[in-house]
Structures are given as C-alpha cells and as structure tokens.
C-alpha cells in the first residue's frame, strides 16, 4: 500500500511540474532543472528550453529528463551543446540505446551516414525491443549500403516487428521496386503468430510499399482487405488514422532555414500551395497543413544540386519519393518539406505530384515581409490563390484535399493512383466509424470522375 501511495504521489508531482512553472519557485538544484525541463518541454518551444539549458547545462540524471533536454537541443539545432551532452550521457549510461539513437540522428542530419549507421546499429543492439531503433537502421542502410543489400535487410526486419507502424513505415518508404515490394509482402505474410487484426495498424504501410513499388492494384487490395475486416465484423475497431500536421514542428524555423539555405546558394524559389496560403492569409504557416511547399521554376531547377545542398546542411535530412522528382526533406524540428519543379506547358505552368499535376497562370516572384522574415511568394497572390483554392480562399476549409476536385487547378495524370487515394480515404472514414462517408469514397474509387 505504501509503495502504491508513493507511486501515485510521484505521478502527481510529475504532472504538476509539467503543467505549472513550479521550477521558478525552487532553489537552484537538480530538482529545479528537472521541473524546468518538464514544464518547458510541455509548454514552450525547443528554443526556449535550450535557452534555459545554456545557463544550467544539460542534466545527466535522471536519464528521462536528460533525453528530453537532449532531444530539444537536437530539434533547436544547437549541435555543439548536443555533442557534449551525448558524449557525457554515453559515458554515464553505456547500456541506454536511446543515447546512440540520438547520436545517429545527429550524424544523419550532418550527412555523415556511415557513423550514423554505426550508432543506429549500436542502439539496436542495446535496445533490441525498439521498433524505432530498427527503423533507423533500415533507413540508414539505404544511405550507406548497395540498394540490393539494403533491400534484403529491410525485408529481413519485417518479421521482428510486423505489427509496428513505425518500422513498417520506414520499410515502405524505401520500397522502390516491384521485386522489393514482393519481398516485403512475403515477409509480412509469413510473420510469426498471425492474427486477423494484424493488418489494421500497418495497412497504410503495406499499401505504401506496394504503390511505391509500382503495384497499385496490390495497394488497393490491402485497403480492401482492411475494409472487409471491419465491415464483416471480423475486427470491430481500428486504430484511428494518424496524419502529420505542422503544429508543434517548428514550421517558422523551417521557413527561416529554407530561406537561409536557398538564398545563400543563389537559388530562385518561392513558397507555394498551402504554405503560400498560410503566409498570405494568416501571416504564418497553417498549423493544420501537412508540409511546407516550395517551387523552383524549370529554368532554375537542378535536382542534383538541391540534393547536395540539403545533404550538406545540418538543418535538413533527405526524404525522397521513388515515384516523383520532387525533393522531399525533413527539417530538424520535424516539419516535412516538398520542393517542386514548376515547368511550362502551353500557356500554363505546372507542378507534379505522384498521380496529379496542378496548373497556374504564369507568374512572377516577389519578396514580402511576413513575421520579420523576407519570403518569396507569387507576385499576384489573389490570382494564384484563386486558381489553387477558389474565390473563397480567405475562408478556412477543413478537410480540403488537393488530390481531388476540391482543387480547381487539378489534372489527374495516373487515374489508378487516384483510385488508390479514394480507397484509402474510404478506409480512414470507416476506421472512425463513418460508414456512409466510407461508402461515398468507395463510389469515387470506382469512378473517380464522379467525385
């Protein structure tokens, strides 16, 4: 009874210091530092937490607080402070897999992929029960090893965590051929102790592996199988679909870093699509948006140079897609970034997604001061945003989907992928219990033109 009471008291104390700035009333001590880290982590930005840590140093105990602090330093990009902290933590906690895991992330953002892989493999050995650790190894294998070897290692990873969304997602993202998809699918089908509900946590991952490998019919089949499990009552509940949004991912800092890198290299670019909408309408990126969009005109486009530029810059890591030439990035704070090539075709300019393209009237670029930052944007924002979002672009539209006829400037280039898109939407509606909306999406999947 006493131990239970002490546990409850400890849990109450942790919740209290995370919710209120109790640390301000405490004398300088390890307890004050712990309370400050918990509060600033929950209620502020990585930059604010790092500002505090610069005065007191990154703590070394307890390990949980030290890792919260170190991850905040990582997201804020203060690598000298982080390197010192990781060296100290590795000496103090030689058996903690989370320490070399963070070291792997730091090395990866600096483009030092071989030491990153070595650190990731060490983390996996120390914490073999961590799907995130194995996912990191899978990702870095593709940066260091021949594709054939990385493909084999990715497929071999599947039986260890076949129900882990994180591991399966990394395997799926790296799938760039029909042969690799076949290996991944076979490894998952042969998983140990299969159960009917195994599919639902990883259906999107398996479908993504299929579509990235060019097997769109198979991708649709995974979603159809998941839908059948739910509609037949074989499985009664599904994990709620997760979507990435920019909220809490330091999108402003990402925009600053994008301007720093591209302006510094003399690349002519502009913020596009939803990012332009947020900057023009609200003076900031849209918190509900899924990524930061940029454009580069065809005459300025050099994909190899962009890849080299962002590989060298420690604020960004590459996140490429095998089915498109866009340059995908991940900012240190977590924000996804897409850089699109805008090319002329007839009297329009277009940029491509995987299965669609969007048109705009030709436009010039101008710089605007927004939030203290000079940002490049289409010079005629009214025309540009009407073309992208319609005349009511000033009114927020929750649920807007640029891959459907919500977007007035959409052209579908690969209809089979759009059928996959609607089938995925059907599954996601069903997963939250909306059978009527799921049926509507399935009807659109059968005849995308009807949507």
TrEMBL record:
Record's superkingdom?
A: Bacteria
What residue range is the signal peptide?
none
**Cross-referenced InterPro entries, in alphabetical order?**
LicD_transferase (IPR052613), TPR-like_helical_dom_sf (IPR011990)
Q: What is this protein called?
A: LicD family protein
Please give the organism.
Natronosporangium hydrolyticum
**Which lineage is the organism of this entry classified under, starting from the top rank?**
Bacteria, Bacillati, Actinomycetota, Actinomycetes, Micromonosporales
């Amino acid at each position: 009874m006493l131990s239970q009471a002490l546990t409850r008291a400890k849990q109450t104390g942790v919740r209290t210091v995370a919710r209120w700035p109790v640390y301000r009333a405490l004398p300088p001590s390890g307890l004050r530092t712990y309370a400050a880290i918990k509060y600033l982590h929950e209620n502020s930005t990585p930059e604010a937490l790092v500002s505090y840590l610069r005065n007191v140093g990154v703590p070394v105990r307890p390990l949980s607080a030290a890792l919260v602090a170190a991850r905040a330093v990582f997201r804020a990009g203060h690598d000298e402070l982080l390197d010192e902290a990781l060296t100290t933590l590795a000496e103090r906690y030689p058996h903690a897999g989370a320490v070399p895991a963070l070291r792997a992330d730091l090395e990866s953002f600096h483009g030092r992929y071989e030491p990153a892989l070595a650190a990731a493999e060490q983390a996996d050995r120390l914490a073999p029960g961590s799907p995130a650790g194995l996912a990191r190894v899978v990702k870095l294998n593709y940066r260091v090893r021949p594709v054939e070897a990385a493909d084999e290692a990715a497929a071999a990873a599947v039986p260890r965590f076949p129900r882990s969304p994180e591991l399966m997602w990394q395997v799926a993202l790296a799938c760039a051929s029909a042969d690799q998809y076949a290996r991944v699918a076979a490894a998952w089908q042969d998983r140990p102790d299969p159960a009917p509900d195994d599919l639902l946590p990883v259906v999107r991952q398996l479908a993504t592996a299929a579509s990235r490998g060019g097997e769109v019919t198979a991708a649709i089949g995974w979603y159809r199988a998941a839908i059948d499990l739910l509609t037949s009552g074989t499985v009664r509940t599904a994990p709620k679909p997760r979507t990435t949004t920019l909220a809490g991912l330091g999108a402003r800092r990402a925009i600053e870093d994008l301007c720093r890198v591209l302006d510094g290299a003399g690349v002519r670019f502009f913020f596009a699509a939803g990012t332009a909408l947020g900057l023009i309408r609200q003076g900031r990126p849209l918190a509900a948006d899924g990524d930061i969009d940029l454009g580069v005109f065809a005459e300025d486009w050099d994909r190899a140079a962009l890849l080299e530029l962002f590989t060298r810059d420690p604020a960004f890591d590459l996140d490429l897609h095998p089915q498109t030439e866009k340059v995908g990035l991940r900012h240190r704070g977590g924000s996804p970034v897409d850089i699109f090539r805008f090319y002329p075709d007839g009297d329009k300019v277009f940029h491509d997604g995987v299965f669609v393209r969007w048109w705009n009237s030709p436009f010039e670029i101008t710089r605007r001061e927004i939030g203290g930052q000079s940002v490049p944007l289409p010079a005629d924002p009214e025309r540009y945003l009407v073309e992208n979002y319609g005349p009511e672009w000033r009114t927020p539209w929750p649920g807007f989907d640029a891959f459907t006829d919500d977007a007035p400037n959409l052209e579908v280039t690969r209809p089979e992928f759009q059928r996959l898109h609607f089938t995925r939407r059907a599954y996601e509606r069903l997963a939250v219990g909306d059978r009527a909306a799921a049926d509507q999406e399935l009807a659109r999947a059968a005849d995308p033109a009807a949507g």
